[in-house]
Design a protein that fits this description.
single chain, 4-stranded antiparallel β-sheet
Amino acid sequence: MAFSGTMEEFDNHLMPNSLLVSYVNPPSVHELMELDGVQQVELVNERKFRIRYTDAQQVTDLLVEKSQGNQWRMSELVHEKTSLENIFSTISGKKTA
């Protein structure tokens, strides 16, 4: 198995591009999609969302700000980590099950 890209490209595979956020009074998927830097919103359950972003700090700051301003009452914010299985799958060109 070999990775043919640059070290910068490899590092980009390691960087998370999503976070999990939970609210007591959750907003709609549409409200979250309207935030700058948000690429995709997945409803995990009635109070938890997986958010894919372009800029972690920008989106995190906006989520905290909007949560306070709109009384969404954020209860959890976790940046997802890339698993070793996904890293090896990506660099080897194989898909995980």
